[in-house]
Amino acid sequence: xxxxxxxxxxxxxxxxxxxxxxxxxxxxxxxxxxxxxxxxxxxxxxxxxxxxxxxxxxxxxxxxxxxxxxxxxxxxxxxxxxxxxxxxxxxxxxxxxxxxxxxxxxxxxxxxxxxxxxxxxxxxxxxxxxxxxxxxxxxxxxxxxxxxxxxxxxxxxxxxxxxxxxxxxxxxxxxxxxxxxxxxxxxxxxxxxxxxxxxxxxxxxxxxxxxxxxxxxxxxxxxxxxxxxxxxxxxxxxxxxxxxxxxxxxxxxxxxxxxxxxxxxxxxxxxxxxxxxxxxxxxxxxxxxxxxxxxxxxxxxxxxxxxxxxxxxxxxxxxxxxxxxxxxxxxxxxxxxxxxxxxxxxxxxxxxxxxxxxxxxxxxxxxxxxxxxxxxxxxxxxxxxxxxxxxxxxxxxxxxxxxxxxxxxxxxxxxxxxxxxxxxxxxxxxxxxxxxxxxxxxxxxxxxxxxxxxxxxxxxxxxxxxxxxxxxxxxxxxxxxxxxxxxxxxxxxxxxxxxxxxxxxxxxxxxxxxxxxxxxxxxxxxxxxxxxxxxxxxxxxxxxxxxxxxxxxxxxxxxxxxxxxxxxxxxxxxxxxxxxxxxxxxxxxxxxxxxxxxxxxxxxxxxxxxxxxxxxxxxxxxxxxxxxxxxxxxxxxxxxxxxxxxxxxxxxxxxxxxxxxxxxxxxxxxxxxxxxxxxxxx
Length: 682
Known about the structure:
Blueprint: E1 18-19, E2 26-27, E3 35-39, E4 61-64, E5 72-75, E6 92-96, E7 99-100, E8 113-120, E9 134-140, E10 148-156, E11 160-170, E12 175-186, E13 191-192, E14 203-217, E15 220-235, E16 245-246, E17 252-268, E18 273-291, E19 307-325, E20 336-355, E21 362-382, E22 385-402, E23 407-408, E24 411-424, E25 429-440, E26 443-444, E27 456-457, E28 460-473, E29 478-501, E30 507-533, E31 536-550, E32 571-579, E33 585-594, E34 597-598, E35 613-614, E36 617-627, E37 631-638, E38 646-652, E39 663-668, E40 673-681
Parallel strand pairs: 6-9, 13-16
Antiparallel strand pairs: 1-2, 3-8, 4-5, 6-7, 8-9, 10-11, 10-40, 11-12, 12-14, 14-15, 15-17, 17-18, 18-19, 19-20, 20-21, 21-22, 22-23, 22-24, 24-25, 25-28, 26-27, 28-29, 29-30, 30-31, 31-32, 32-33, 33-36, 34-35, 36-37, 37-40, 38-39
C-alpha cells in the first residue's frame, strides 16, 4: 500500500517499471532482456511473506524445497535443488539490497519490499559466476519524502499470525530514514502423529530492516541498509506414506539467522563520469537438520534411528565499483555510452555435521575468492537502433579442507559477456536480439565413500541466443513482453546421487555432481498486462521450456542422452483478473500451474519416472478487499481446491515395512489456506 494517501487512486495506465538489477537502471519496457518485475505494492490473493510465495508467478522459474522454505531456485531449468555437506557454487544469484545471499534464500523475507526483479538467462556481464541461469534482485522500499507510518496485521488458518510496522520520513533536509520490523509465524502444514503436535514444520520469522539515505549535494547520494532475519523454523516434511502425517520422534530444524548490510555511493564526478560503488556484508548462522529415519523407536523390528544436522557459519563480503559515462562523456561523436567496473567477493563457510553414524563430528572449511573486471559499450548506430557489447573476465579461487583430510584448491579463469542489437520498430514496439555467454566455476565432491574419479568436476559454460519483443498499446493500457531463447550448455554440471548400503542394511544417500558433455534448454516466455477498463485488469504470464542432456552417462552407467533435465516443466503459467466493481472495493482471482517434471537425474530415476516426478497441477487463489483512505482489509484464500502437489522428491529405501525397497518420497506444497490482512497507514 502507499506510505501515505488521502484516497486510493483509481487504476489508470500501467505505470512504468524500472529495473535496478542491470548495470544501469533501465525501464522494463526498454531493457533488452527477458526480465520480470514483481511489485509488492500490488494487491495479491494472499499475504506475501517470503520469496518462495511469489516466484511461481514468473515464467520458467521453478523452486525446490527440502526445508521449511524453498530456498533453491531454477531458472529455465538451471539451478541447484538442495545442499547437504558439499560446498555450493550457485547457478542462480540472489541479491538483497546489494548483498549477495545466493544459496541461502531462507533470509529472503519480503515485508516492506518494493519489488522483486527476476533476470532470466546467464548474466555473464552483470554478475558472473553465480548467475549462470539468472539473477534475482530484491529491493526494499527507500525512505519516503514525507513522514509516513504503516501497520499490518495478518491472521489465518494453521494458526498463522503476523505483525509488522514501518516508520519512514526525513530526519533533516538531506537525510531520510526508514525502519521496518515484522514478526510472522504459523504452525506449518504437517501433523506429527507420534508426538501429537501440528507445529513441527512451523515458520517463526523475525525481519528487521533499516535504511538511511543521505544526499550531501545535488551530485552525490549515500545509502546505508542494515538487515536482520531470524528464521527459527521447523523441518518435519517427509512421511513414509507420502501424506501430511509424520512419525518423527526428533523433528528437524531449518533455522537461519542472518545479519547483513550494504553501503551504496552514487557520485556524479563531473558531467562526463558517474561513479557507483556498493559494499555488501553478510554473516549467517544456519542450522539445518532432520530425523533421517522419519519414525520412532519401536515402530518396526527392522527399523533404525538416526539424525543428521548441518551447522554452517557463512560470512560474505563483496565490493562492486563502476564508472559510467555521463551526458558529456559519450564516445564516438556522442553516440556511445560506456561503463567499466571491478568486482570482488570473499566468502568463508565453516560446517559442522553431526550425524548418528559418524564417530565424531565432521567439520570443513570452504573459502572462495572471486575477482572480476567488466565493461560495456552501448552505441546508437542509427535512428532507433542500439548495439551493446559487454565483457567480463573473472578468476574464481577456492580452498577446501575437512576433518577427513580432504584438500582441494581449484582455480578457474572464465570469460563471459553479451552482444545485443536493439531496435525501435515503432513508437510502441521494441525488439532485440542477444547472444550471451555465462559461466560457472568447477568444484569437487567430498563424500568419504566416493571413488577418486568422482571427486572433481569441470566449469560449465553456456551460450544463450534470445529474440525478444516489448510493446505498449492502447494509450498504455496494454503491455506485452515476449522472448524466444535457445541455450547451449557445455560440460553441464549435473547434480545426481548414488545409494550405498551400510553394514546394518540401512541406506546411505550420497549427493554428487558430475559433468555431462553438453545439453540444451530452449523455450519461450510471454507476459501480458491489460487494463481494458478502469475497473478491470487482466494479466497472464506463460513459460514454455524444452530441455535435454546430450552424451551423458551417469554414475550408474545409464545413458541419459536425450532425457529431460530435472526441475524443468514443459509449461507453467500464472493468470488472473482483478475487478473493482465499486469505489474502494476489489476482487481478484488467480490461477497458477505447471507441467510435470523430474525431481532428479540420479540412477533409476528416469526408468522409474512414474515413481519420482511431480504431477502437473493447477492452483486457484482469490481475494476480496476494501481500501479506505487510511486503512484496508483483505480476505484471501490460496489453493482453494486443496490440491496436493509435490515440491521435492527423492528415490531411495527408507521404509522398514517393505524391506527398505527403493521408491519415491515427496515433500508436499502448501494446502488450502485462508486468512485476513488488515493494514493501516498514515
